[in-house]
């Protein structure tokens, strides 16, 4: 029996990832993970996934933790790290173990990222990993009578030293330590460092790879997307959250309020979690955003003006058939839109012919300023899913200018007699639109 691409889950996954590959290229992502990830036997797999991000054109900044490595050094030296009010107290005696533990963790990360061994996902890769004194710190000082000594907090991030490396395609690695202008070193929280770096760079994404199973709603279902208000409610509510998740939620809120577009909380123990979160529609973690950035949704009557403005230039050129406001208002239920900060930047419509198990994809338009960013592919995938949900088995499209775009996405040329009877009667021979069909798997 022959095998077809339509039944190959690997091909389907790769096709679904394509829009995100285009969308993420050239973007800046700050990825934070703890020392637990470094100590795990699965760490090489995570490194491979990070390297793949870089090879796909993502500008990657890594911020690593070192808690287990520091604790191992302290134990070997017969010392322990003390805590007060949830903060570490790093005295001079413990600082040498902190420095050594961070160095152990950093060395392991650098070694893994430098590998280029045949028969592994790193084969043939040549990643340049850079670091430096990019984080300027200050002491936490004395709080409630307690001197936190060498425990510090971020004062500023030297973005001018980081950006040139990202521009050259280098991977920037940042450790949970910082330096004062007087040359002192401070022990820092990796979550705080990652948040500060993301804010300073105005990163497109801040990604926390967690040691927990992730946020869930009251019915124990994964929370795939929440806004700032929901994140703040989680912190202030009665729900039991791990200390790690609380730190990350605080970081997410701070980041979103300071220019970071999206923050992701992801269980790093899921195989391929980083790639699944970034290159699939549903992801495997929780996305936290300001809520007004960009989202795909069904069109509403209030969107009519925005859709008309979007399609008017193409109607004037004869690319699209003209639609009156009245017609669009009547047909608004067929449309889906992508809204970005209140602007309709893309739309598409699905008209079903249930008697013949076929649907028409129509009026697929992307605003000129947002083309070549994967929005067309996102809308196409959405329309295909809507069609499947309605039990339709095929899609067809009529086009005069974009034949190649549809052919590249699995549509094949068709004939008029393959159209539904009702649609065949409305075919405009003067426009002579080409017909393309796609079977939905």
TrEMBL record:
- Please tell me whether the keyword Cytoplasm is annotated for this protein: yes
Look up the EC number in the record and give it.
Answer: 2.3.1.1
GO MF entries: L-glutamate N-acetyltransferase activity
Where does this protein come from, organism-wise? Acidihalobacter aeolianus
Q: Which CDD domains match?
A: AAK_NAGS-ABP (cd04237), NAT_SF (cd04301)
Give me the gene this protein comes from: argA
Q: One GO term of the cellular component aspect?
A: cytoplasm
Q: Give the N-acetyltransferase domain ranges.
A: 294-433
Give the similarity note.
Belongs to the acetyltransferase family. ArgA subfamily.
Pathway terms, separated by semicolons? Amino-acid biosynthesis; L-arginine biosynthesis; N(2)-acetyl-L-ornithine from L-glutamate: step 1/4
Q: Which reaction does it catalyse?
A: L-glutamate + acetyl-CoA = N-acetyl-L-glutamate + CoA + H(+)
The protein's matches in InterPro entries, at most eight in alphabetical order, are given as: AceGlu_kinase-like_sf (IPR036393), Acyl_CoA_acyltransferase (IPR016181), Asp/Glu/Uridylate_kinase (IPR001048), GNAT_dom (IPR000182), NAGS_kin (IPR033719), NH2A_AcTrfase (IPR010167)
What other comment is given for this protein? In bacteria which possess the bifunctional enzyme ornithine acetyltransferase/N-acetylglutamate synthase (ArgJ), ArgA fulfills an anaplerotic role.
Pfam families annotated for this entry? AA_kinase, Acetyltransf_1
Return the protein name. Answer: Amino-acid acetyltransferase
Its localization reads: Cytoplasm
- Coiled-coil annotated spans: none
Its main localization is cytoplasm
Which key words are in the record? Acyltransferase, Amino-acid biosynthesis, Arginine biosynthesis, Cytoplasm, Transferase
Q: Enzyme class, one word? A: transferase
Question: What's a BP term from Gene Ontology annotated to this protein?
Answer: L-arginine biosynthetic process
């Amino acid at each position: 029996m022959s095998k077809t691409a339509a039944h190959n889950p690997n091909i389907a996954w790769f096709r679904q990832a394509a829009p995100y590959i285009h969308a993420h290229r050239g973007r800046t992502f700050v990825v934070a993970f703890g020392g637990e990830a470094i100590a795990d036997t699965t760490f090489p797999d995570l490194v491979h996934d990070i390297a793949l991000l870089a090879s796909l054109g993502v500008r990657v900044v890594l911020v690593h933790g070192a808690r287990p490595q520091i604790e191992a050094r302290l134990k070997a030296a017969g010392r322990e790290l003390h805590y007060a009010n949830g903060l570490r107290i790093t005295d001079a005696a413990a600082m040498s173990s902190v420095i050594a533990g961070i160095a152990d963790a950093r060395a392991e990360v650098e070694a893994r990222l430098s590998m280029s061994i045949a028969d592994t996902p790193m084969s043939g890769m040549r990643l340049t990993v850079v670091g430096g004194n990019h984080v300027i710190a200050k002491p936490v000082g004395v709080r409630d009578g307690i001197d936190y000594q060498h425990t510090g907090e971020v004062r500023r991030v030297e973005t001018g030293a980081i950006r040139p490396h990202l521009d050259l395609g280098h991977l920037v690695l940042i450790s949970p330590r910082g330096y004062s202008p007087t040359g002192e070193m401070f022990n820092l929280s990796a979550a705080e460092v990652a948040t500060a770096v993301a804010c300073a760079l105005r990163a497109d994404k801040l990604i926390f790879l967690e040691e927990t199973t992730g946020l869930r709603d009251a019915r124990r279902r994964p929370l795939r997307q929440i806004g700032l208000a929901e994140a703040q409610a989680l912190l202030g509510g009665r729900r039991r959250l791990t200390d790690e998740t609380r730190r990350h939620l605080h970081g997410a809120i701070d980041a979103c309020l300071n220019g970071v577009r999206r923050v992701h909380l992801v269980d790093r123990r899921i195989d391929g979690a980083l790639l699944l979160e970034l290159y699939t529609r549903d992801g495997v973690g929780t996305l936290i955003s300001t809520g007004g950035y960009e989202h795909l949704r069904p069109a509403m009557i209030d969107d009519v003006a925005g859709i008309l403005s979007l399609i008017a230039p193409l109607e004037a050129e004869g690319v699209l058939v003209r639609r009156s406001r009245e017609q669009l208002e009547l047909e608004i239920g067929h449309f889906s839109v992508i809204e970005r900060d209140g602007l309709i930047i893309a739309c598409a419509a699905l008209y079903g012919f249930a008697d013949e198990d076929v649907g028409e994809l129509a009026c697929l338009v992307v605003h000129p300023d947002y083309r070549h960013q994967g929005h067309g592919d996102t809308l196409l995938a959405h329309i295909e899913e809507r069609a499947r949900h309605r039990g339709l088995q095929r899609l067809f499209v009529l086009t005069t200018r974009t034949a190649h775009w549809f052919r590249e996405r699995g549509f094949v040329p068709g004939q008029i007699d393959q159209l539904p009877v009702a649609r065949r009667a409305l075919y405009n021979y003067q426009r002579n639109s080409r017909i393309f069909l796609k079977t939905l798997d």
